[in-house]
Design the sequence.
């Protein structure tokens, strides 16, 4: 099953592609800057297609099977999305064209801003952030700039619950804040006492993931936000788990000040093997002018005969640009398509079914796996992937054994507050039959663990490769087809 | 719409959970905020949205209908059909970050090959698995420099000839770091030279010097002295490069750059109104443990078979949490795949050819345009790649408005970001343009300026 | 272009073969004809042909730009995006006929499912793996009947209301068979009724009666008596059906048809200027060993696992050679896959819905159009599905020429194939048309006939 | 690996797709024609995509690996072809549109007609036939009509060499001819004596595959055609093997009267798992008016300012229509694209490399497999798939064992004149590396046959399924998801 690399497939002198000969008089290349042809592989188009087709077969994907990777919301990506973003009217527009020539694009972005505002309850949305973590950074920088503008530069402390996403602490420190972790209480909520003791004049804000990475909705969310606000802090909501709240609750309504939205999770744009994502950010009214831009606005309302005329603006106190141009437009087209197709009822249906699926699966899985926080969950749940009577078996072994059953493993070892965590997010697009099959596999594995633990500890048995030597990878660092000798 | 549940199944599932209705699932959500009415248009069927999308898209003018001379950071190159044939495979685009190597070798090997291609292209030692775009990759370069010096060097020098949006992005990123000063990119005084100015500013406070190659004005500049002086003072140097240009130009690695970043959009990624693009991030070997973003490494599996994994993950934010230097947790996976397929299809000869065609056609265009009465090259002595600055006899906006009648999108109006460059147009020419297209542009400009 | 050979490899290969040059490979080709100069344009690169194809395609008017009321055997239905997502997978479209079941289960199972879907749709017992199109499937029905009677019944009765191109195709196919007479489709005398005419012609020489359902004019006709009389005389009956109509109409199987054929284009296949389409061919069980074309059957592998294979291959031409009754050796594999995916995506409820929408919108259109002064329904009493004949106050060509200004493609000009039907337009309406589209058509017709 | 059927995946009440509600007043359905909803499966879009994606993984394909299926010309299908035929300007045109509105389509078809004429040396081409066998039928019907028009109805005999394609006899009898087989001589050419003895007044024609199914070019082709012509017969050329002759020989030049062209072989349009093909037919000048139609012609030559105006016509003595509309237009677009990209030099390069590859591979394979006709071949070659010293091993076993090596088997047991035939056609798009790997596998298998014949007779071992029970399939006829009880 080992597929050669493109360099191993390369043959000197082979040509896969030719451009037309030059039709203009020749100009000499600039002296002193010449180089030999770049050492690229030399392949035929067939070589390339066969290589990458065969590589594709080594991947698990949503199109190929169940992908219950917790907190990643691996829902089905409708095929119409792919058609949408490839329409030449979208894909062939240059970002610096005169705005008169891209009114279609601007209209679409404006609508998407409005829709995300309506869905989330925030006052204003910027579509520019490139991914969830990028949106988080926006949020942290807004908190920073807001306090600076209010001459409260002593506010350097960001509170982060231990049930938050892993990026939150990194984002905070990247923004120059001091991170203070908050413990969870026995129901998985933020510990209110710990919160209270941190509500002082150094408090910049709280980064709250709700539902949190245990899949639990914080029952005290209103009180928590109130406490932070009273202390002069801002509350950032990590929107990575928004799928559970569509049509159920608008985070802006309960007082969140800032939130990013992962279009590649909640709004079905494909994950692409790790990107491109898209992480628009919404804020409350008082923070609207801090957003990164450009943002689409209506320059002329139009009338019965003429549609509105759209343009771009940079908010007055903006934290600045987060990237070139206007965000991941191709991804925005897909999210627009998805929201337009769902409408208010369809969106709520997503939230309801995501939560229904998670609870149904949790109910079945918890018979054989310890569920540390046993209450109604939202879109995902976390069980322990180990048993006292089989100490040799770990969460990782269960994960790898699931591969043999045709499933992608859940998220392993996260959140850190659950011992040997297995974090399962089924999403709303999976059927009861698939959930039943997964639950049956989990049950079978629990039995195998007792009867033949090697089935787990040596798993996977049917994947393209067996377990990998990660220590060697980090020690012998080979990061390209040939290891530079200097390493 | 895409939820498969039948009423009967919902009943069964609720019974297993022990609830009466799906509403009961949300008891922990504050009642007063629960189940808001969303003021959105009712959902559309696929037939309806397909028609609506066609209408919206038709409200744009595209680079297929117009001859476009816009570049300035995004370029209209031909994308071989093979690229999208691979990108549209569900196995690639509906997979996620390859956390589980046993079922992700496809993505992992593709990125490993991407990393190799990027090191070959740039002449650098190490490439990561990609960043969001050229602007954020450039900002991450500054970020790397900041952390490399443990926050002790606060001065980030950036040439004014670096893409203005990249410079803005660096500034945004730097606001999170204490007392960092980004400068060097103030307007030049009359007669002042960018290189001399930078040379004059480099000192022992300088963390990094960031230059663009070819620069934002398309010029091919020899930064040898900048690199020498920076290294003399222990500072790092980052090159912001255009990948197509490296098909014929000496790479950043050959200039002894410490970091080379750029936007990979020209490598098989559609213009798509500005994104998603691809942030290329490459470094010298010594920074391998300091660069942000994913890295794919080669190893073996338990049977000794070659295999690929995400490696050096200990650098990343989900392990190091607040101690990590960047919060980036995805790469631009599918776009990196696009670049890998594009470079594999073009190969050694095709890539050189496309770079050369861009160069030749741009030079022909410059030659012809600068002959028009009232037109001249802004930098007549500077070598350039496929973009050049043209001084024109009226405002760029005015000319471009008139060019639309000729189905031409004129070049970028530099006065938008360089107030000192009134009536100067940045013209980009790629291999997609024929001599006829260029001649049409010249003729159209002659007409609209003659009126 | 797509040959991978390097000069060095060619040398090595020739050395192994023992020749000096590639020209030597062709010594057996008569020298005076060897290596002709072909008078063709020089080859184009992909960049060039892509641009040229865009230009050629732009010289057409499409059903996306125009509202089109053309049907007459090809219909403008919405195709869900999921269909092409599957069809564009290289594993399907770059495979060949599944001769080797061990590495062709994908194609085999998909066709097996297609066969199942076709039997459900038609109410027939058996479907083959498909024919080229509706016309050839109909001709193969006549061919089957001829061989069923071992050539002894020479009379093929075909209703005039069967698609004229299908009737022509039957006639072409029948020229290879001795003394076969195809008739029944002469113009009707004034007052003569098609059914009565056919009933009067059925006799013991009759091999088959071929009728269309809904017929070419869109009418839904009860063929019960035709089937009864045909069976009384031992003749076969074939229905040519429209698959969309079967979403709401009683299927051919319920009429006791022996054969049901049709064109599967409405099931997820683009108009594509007439092809490739899909010939659906279904029969009663008793004809299973007589029908032409591939059949996929279920079986088991050596481990007892369910598996699919091409079966009853002994019928086929590569085994029976001159004794086989048809020379067809491929099916329309990818198109059968399209139909299978289309029907799977739409499912029970979606398919009923699309059929009903076609019906409802066509009836609204008929209602509105027949109210226009000078317009009337040609068959006011006949029930119809999604197509109907409109008598109009001038020539169809003239009207259609004028409608182009309104971005409308008018209906089919029946006088092209039915000389007795001057000034009669066959109007087709599908689910893609909105009420507004229909109203626009009505308004445009009112305007152009008012002038 | 067993994938459920769409009916096994179906759940009552599940909906995967919805159309807009009706926006017109409701009309009652006609009485007496009502039916219940068709019993179609009830699936989500995800169900459908996952099902067919997983099915696709069970296929071998050119995009996935080497496919040396003799006489099928499984060459690489360039990806630009797929883009071409999907351009809305092509795919969204109705065949009955006014010709003024489809000048692009007609231009493309006209060019393709002209190009195929130039490539093949025939006077006139009709693009309507849907596949190779369909084109063959056209040929046979033209022969029939031609003789009828000349009042030579006694010409009922078609000669078919034993090295011809399997469809030829079926086509002839479908057209009412008597088939007379012709033996091959010891060099694989048509036996001239046998031909001569059949050249009488009952001779209607000869169907000649050249290069034949042994992959050999008939060295006496000029003489053979001459003999048939002298006897008053016509010569039909089976164009299935035209790939070997591109730029090498124009069949029309050596006297062939009629020939079909498999666009899905020679001109790279994909095979689609068994269709759609496309089988245009070319004829000599005297037969031009017999072609099936419609054919594209220039109605108005145009001038410097106006392009030519194209239209359609039906030839005067046409055998008639072969199908509805004008051929497989979507396939024609791909062939047009391919020819336009190659030009004269590129086309000859195809022919040369196809023959080079076949001879190179033959040279390597013949060391271990008996090659009955040992001379320079054209695009393919045939060896015996058995050895005297291992009588238990058959051609089929070698084929199945090749699957374990990742290759599609060659064509088995055809042509019939070679004992245990293995017919190998590598095509020009495969690299020397692939040919070497295939030859190495063939060599290894020859060794395995001696050392461990079960490796062959029980093969394949690594395919999705093992060998199938074809007797059961034909006996227990299960042709749809449920066997009708009547069977």
Sequence:
């Amino acid at each position: 099953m080992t597929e050669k690399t493109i360099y191993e497939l390369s043959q000197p002198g082979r040509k896969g592609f030719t451009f037309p000969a030059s039709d203009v008089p020749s100009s000499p290349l600039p002296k002193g800057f010449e180089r030999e042809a770049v050492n690229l592989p030399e392949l035929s188009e067939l070589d390339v297609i066969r290589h990458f087709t065969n590589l594709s077969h080594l991947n698990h994907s949503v199109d190929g099977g169940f992908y219950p990777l917790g907190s990643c919301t691996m829902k089905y990506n409708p095929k119409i999305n792919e058609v949408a973003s490839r329409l030449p009217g979208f894909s062939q527009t240059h970002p610096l064209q005169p705005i008169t020539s891209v009114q279609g694009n601007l209209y679409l972005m404006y609508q998407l801003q409005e829709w995300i505002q309506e869905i989330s309850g925030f006052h204003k949305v910027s579509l520019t952030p490139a991914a969830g973590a990028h949106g988080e950074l926006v949020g942290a920088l807004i908190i920073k700039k807001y306090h600076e503008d209010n001459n409260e530069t002593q506010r350097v402390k960001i509170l982060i619950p231990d049930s938050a996403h892993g990026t939150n602490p990194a984002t905070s420190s990247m923004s120059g804040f001091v991170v203070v972790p908050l413990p969870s209480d026995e129901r998985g909520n933020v510990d209110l006492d710990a919160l209270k003791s941190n509500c002082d004049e150094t408090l910049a804000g709280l980064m709250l993931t709700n539902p949190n990475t245990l899949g639990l909705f914080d029952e005290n969310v209103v009180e928590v936000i109130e406490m932070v606000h009273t202390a002069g802090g801002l509350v950032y909501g990590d929107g990575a788990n928004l799928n559970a709240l569509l049509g159920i609750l608008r985070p802006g309504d309960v007082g969140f000040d800032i939130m990013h939205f992962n279009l590649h999770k909640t709004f079905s744009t494909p994950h692409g093997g790790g990107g491109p994502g898209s992480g628009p950010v919404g804020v409350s009214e008082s923070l609207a002018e801090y957003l990164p831009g450009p943002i689409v606005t209506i320059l002329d309302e139009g009338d019965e005969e003429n549609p509105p005329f759209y343009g771009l603006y940079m908010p007055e106190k903006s934290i600045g640009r987060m990237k070139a141009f206007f965000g991941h437009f191709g991804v925005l087209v897909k999210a627009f398509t998805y929201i337009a197709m769902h409408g208010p009822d369809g969106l709520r249906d997503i939230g309801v079914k995501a939560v229904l699926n998670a609870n149904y699966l949790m109910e079945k899985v918890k018979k054989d796996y310890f569920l540390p926080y046993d209450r109604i969950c939202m879109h995902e749940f976390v069980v322990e992937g180990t048993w006292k009577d089989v100490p040799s078996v770990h969460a990782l072994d269960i994960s790898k054994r699931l591969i043999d059953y045709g499933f992608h493993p859940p998220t392993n070892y996260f959140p850190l507050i659950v011992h040997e965590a297995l974090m399962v997010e089924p999403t709303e697009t999976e059927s009861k039959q698939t959930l039943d099959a997964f639950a049956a596999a989990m049950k079978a594995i629990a039995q195998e663990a007792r009867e033949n633990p090697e089935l787990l500890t040596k798993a996977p048995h049917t994947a393209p490769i067996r377990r990998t030597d990660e220590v060697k990878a980090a020690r012998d660092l080979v990061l390209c087809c040939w290891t530079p000798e200097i390493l | 719409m895409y939820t498969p549940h039948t009423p009967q199944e919902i009943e069964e599932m609720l019974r297993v959970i022990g609830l009466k209705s799906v509403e009961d699932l949300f008891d922990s959500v504050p009642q007063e905020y629960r189940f808001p009415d969303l003021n959105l248009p009712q959902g559309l069927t696929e037939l309806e949205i397909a028609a609506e999308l066609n209408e919206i898209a038709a409200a744009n003018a595209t680079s297929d209908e117009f001859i476009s001379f816009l570049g300035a950071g995004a370029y209209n190159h031909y994308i071989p059909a093979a690229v999208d044939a691979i990108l549209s495979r569900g196995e690639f685009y509906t997979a996620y970050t390859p956390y589980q190597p046993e079922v992700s070798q496809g993505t992992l090997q593709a990125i490993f090959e991407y990393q190799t291609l990027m090191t070959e292209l740039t002449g650098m030692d190490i490439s990561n698995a990609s960043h969001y775009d050229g602007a954020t990759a450039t900002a991450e370069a500054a970020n790397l420099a900041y952390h490399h010096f443990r926050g002790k060097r606060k001065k980030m020098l950036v040439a004014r000839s670096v893409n203005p949006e990249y410079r803005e992005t660096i500034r945004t990123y730097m606001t999170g770091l204490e007392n960092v000063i980004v400068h060097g990119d103030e307007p030049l005084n009359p007669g002042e030279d960018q290189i001399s100015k930078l040379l004059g500013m480099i000192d022992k406070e300088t963390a990094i010097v960031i230059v663009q190659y070819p620069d934002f004005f398309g010029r091919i500049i020899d930064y040898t002295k900048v690199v020498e002086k920076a290294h003399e003072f222990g500072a790092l140097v980052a090159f912001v490069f255009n990948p197509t240009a490296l098909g014929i130009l000496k790479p950043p690695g050959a200039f002894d750059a410490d970091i080379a970043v750029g936007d990979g959009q020209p490598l098989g990624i559609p213009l798509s109104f500005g994104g998603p693009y691809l942030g290329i991030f490459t470094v010298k070997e010594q920074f391998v443990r300091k660069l942000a973003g994913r890295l794919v490494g080669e190893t073996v599996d338990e049977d000794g078979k070659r295999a690929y994994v995400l490696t050096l993950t200990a650098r990343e934010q989900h392990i190091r949490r607040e101690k990590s230097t960047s919060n980036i947790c995805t790469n631009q996976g599918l776009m990196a795949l696009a670049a890998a397929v594009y470079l594999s299809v073009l190969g050694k000869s095709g890539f050189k050819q496309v770079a050369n065609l861009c160069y030749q056609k741009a030079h022909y265009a410059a030659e012809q345009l600068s002959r028009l009465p009232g037109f001249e090259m802004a930098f007549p002595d500077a070598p350039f790649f496929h973009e050049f600055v043209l001084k024109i006899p009226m405002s760029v906006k005015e000319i471009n408005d008139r060019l639309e009648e000729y189905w031409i999108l004129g070049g970028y109006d530099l006065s938008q970001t360089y107030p000192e460059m009134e009536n100067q147009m940045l013209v980009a020419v790629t291999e997609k343009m024929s001599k006829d297209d260029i001649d049409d542009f010249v003729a159209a400009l002659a007409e609209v300026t003659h009126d």
Notes: The domain at 81-342 of chain B is CATH 3.40.640.10 (Aspartate Aminotransferase; domain 2). Chain B has two domains: 67-79+347-450, 81-342. Chain B is about 35% helix and 15% strand. The CA atoms of residues 135 and 166 of chain B lie 4 Å apart.
